[in-house]
Protein 1
Amino acid sequence: MATKYVKRYSALDRLIHWTIAVTFIILVVTGLGLFEKKLSFLFDLFGGGENAIAIHKYIGLLYFVTALWFSLAHLKDSISFDKDDVAWIKVMGGYLNKKAIVPPMGKYNTGQKIFGIFVLLTTIIFGLTALVIWTPATAAQGLARVSFLLHSLSFVIMITFFVVHVYLGAIGVVGGLEGMIRGEVSEAWAKKYSPKWLSEQKKRGEAG
């Protein structure tokens, strides 16, 4: 019997998602040199500090636009919480205990929803603080320091979330990465990880 697939992401969604991923990695490499002087040797990868800083600025702008667009486009799914999300948190999604009974999820599980909200909040923080950091001469000294602190703190936390997201997306949830590569997931996968979403898709006639 042929495997049935369900459309999960559009071509535009996938393009934006991978743009966010690539730009974030570039921002991490260029940002580490700015964050810690001992890592300034990373600037050599971009032809020196001046180039690295310029790249960080412009890539940061691209990241801001794409991350903000993706977050807002999927905001409805990210902020939709119910009793199943509470139950998911209690068992930590079954990641720490394979025998745990994981409640049925919608398009995104609770962890992904939290990550999505966090991405939106940090994107806004990155954008606002960057305006101050890159034009310090026009900002009060105290504001510049606070902006740098918030920018750096969000940067460090985001790296942690990013690593966890990549691990769970590529390894922790087998088959999950397929959805963001080809735009489809098997119906069996959807039934296991996103049963409520699959049910909605069937009601709309978008799944078999």
Protein 2
Amino acid sequence: MSTGWTSALRVAAGLWLHEVRPDDLTRLRQAPRLGDALALSLDAFGGDVDRLAAEHQRLLGFAVPPFESVFVDPSAMMMAPATARVAALYREAGWTEPTDTRAAAPDHLGVELLALAEFVEAGKDE
């Protein structure tokens, strides 16, 4: 996988893990592989970071739970066996979640995207 993809994974992870900041508009426009559709979406906000941040929170903070276990575990609960499987994968790969992610569980989509980017960069594609 190219560095363009890992850069895009890192940008996507950041959007799930942190609130929108003013420099995000520039980073998103410059991120390879995110495509023209994303640029058009950003332009719809006219550079208004407050509007973008509010929409970001509405979509990614409230509307869609960002935890794998909610979608793949039969209980549809956080901290279910799916969460433990993800944590075990991280341990087996020797990866530790950065302390600044503020994610409630290791199966948070932003953490998974960040881990994927770092696995690929380290040559752990499998």
Protein 3
Amino acid sequence: MKYFPKIKGKNLYLSPINPDDYELYTKWINDLSTSIPLGGATMTYSLMKEKELLEKISREENMFAIIDTASNEAIGNCSLFNLNQIHGTAELGIFLGAAESRGKGYGSEAIELLLNYGFKMLNLHNIKLGVFSFNERGISCYEKCGFKEFGRRREAFRINGRYFDEVHMDILEQDFDPDFVIEELP
């Protein structure tokens, strides 16, 4: 696949999404270990549906494939969306579709790259996200990157007969302390 490094890190880089990756994304999004934390376990994605979705989001701003530098292969996706340039706010979304890439620090590195981009290039001030309370690995990663919980929507997600909270977290520009800086920034 063709990828174009937009934001480079130590072990990975963020590239514009390649719609030709639709078969890989279809595999990822139909895997319950990926779709349950995203809240999409009840949805079924065919190759054609995922291809249409990737073609659509590849035209949008601030949507990135997460690429492992060593293998030059996509391992996930991240984005900044619902940007409000007047107030300097946005929402962050991320998933690692390649199960073998989880637990290796790639998620936190991708988030740091995205936060660097958001705060230093897009001039954002506040970036928020939502995560389900059962996703302890995700919450730990977000806290490691500087996010703080600011509220919960109680018992807002039901799966397997159990209810879980939707946890709302955010980070302010002044609270962001990256382990590294984007090398292309002056």
Protein 4
Amino acid sequence: MNAAAQISAGRGVFLLGVFLAIAPALSYFAQLELGWIFMPWHIPILTTLGVGLMLMGLLRRFGIVRALVFGLFVVVCGGMWFTMLVASKTPEYAGPAKAGNAFPAFSAQRADGQPLTQLDLARGDAHVIVFYRGHW
């Protein structure tokens, strides 16, 4: 059986779909190793295309093993989309505390080494507080 006959039978299309569904996840591990931290939208998109090719191959040549592999990849692909669209959403920013609310309890150190707390602010003395988040 030549290559064109295999593709028409669905084997090549199905295997290409499996490769297209697995390769993006492997690229994500490479992305993490390189320290590239960004939303990997390519993973669910390419996995969806791979699942589509697997469906085409399954429709051309049906088999129980193929159907089980296809079902597994459909579940994995759905999980990827759920993670990207729902589970990774951050809550809406509510903004800083409203004026008139009590200052939360804290303890800091002044430049001269003396402690500074919210009680010192309540006395009305002039203070400058600098928030330094460090190197991210």
